[in-house]
Amino acid sequence: MTAGERDQQQALSFGGFAAEYERGRPSYPAAAVDWVLPPGCRRVADVGAGTGKLTRLLRARGLEVTAVEPTGGMREQLARQVPDVPALPGTAEQIPLPDGSVDAVLLAQAWHWADPALALPEAARVLVPGGWLGLLWNVRDEQVPWVAELGRVMHGHGEDHYSPPLGPPFGPPERLTVRWVSHQTPDTLLDMVASRSHVNIRPPQARAVLLGDVRRLLATHPDLAGATDIPLPYLTRCTRARLPGGPAMGNGGRSG
């Protein structure tokens, strides 16, 4: 299997683990969501929307949201969670919306699956002049010892794709990191691990071994043993870039 084929397999694997994704994956902090939305934003495309973790936060702000998600299992979960938001099949490379129809195109936990050569002009196509492309990733804060040990057990990947280079037709990207804590139970933490693409494409026996190792960590680590509420620290890495035209981008939030 080539690297490209493996990436495609991972990207499409989420549909079979949509329930685990919904139970185990964290939401996003308000400061991160507000930072990637342009001033006066009314219409948003949530691309790679998954089960609607970001979608419901956008809808709660009174925005007109269209969710775009390639896998049927994820769209079914999204429809249950946010029934008043249309959930359309599509990808970052093929967004099923008219030209100039949204003020922001957002991708949470999804841009690394996209082909920027196709996704950047496609985002520009559906945006109004001066619209924003916003990207978010939740990254576990492995400065905390037990979280670092969890990462070693999971054989997780590095963070090199959390600050993507982007490029034309968008202007220079701005960055923001938001620190926050998601409260988990032992069961939802296991669901979080099980929902990771590099975990759920493993053969069943290898996947069971890895999840068994996570259970042992939960049972034996002094910061976790016996805990029913597990504060899992996250860094939300945010990137935004503006399409030329329209009002200038504000500078709310800190870049870094």
Overview of the structural elements:
By secondary structure, this protein is α/β, with parallel strands linked by helices. The protein has one domain (3-242): Rossmann fold (3-Layer(aba) Sandwich). The protein has helices spanning 3-12, 18-24, 30-35, 53-60, 72-81, 116-126, 145-154, 186-194, 197-200, 204-220; strands spanning 43-47, 64-68, 87-88, 102-108, 127-140, 174-184, 230-242. Strand 2 (64-68), helix 5 (72-81) and strand 3 form a beta-alpha-beta unit. Helix 2 packs across helix 8 (186-194) and helix 7 (145-154) packs antiparallel against helix 10 (204-220). The radius of gyration is 18 Å and the shape is globular.
Blueprint (SSEs and pairs):
Blueprint: H1 3-12, H2 18-24, H3 30-35, E1 43-47, H4 53-60, E2 64-68, H5 72-81, E3 87-88, E4 102-108, H6 116-126, E5 127-140, H7 145-154, E6 174-184, H8 186-194, H9 197-200, H10 204-220, E7 230-242
Parallel strand pairs: 1-2, 1-4, 2-3, 4-5
Antiparallel strand pairs: 5-7, 6-7
Helix pairs in contact: 2-8, 7-10, 8-10
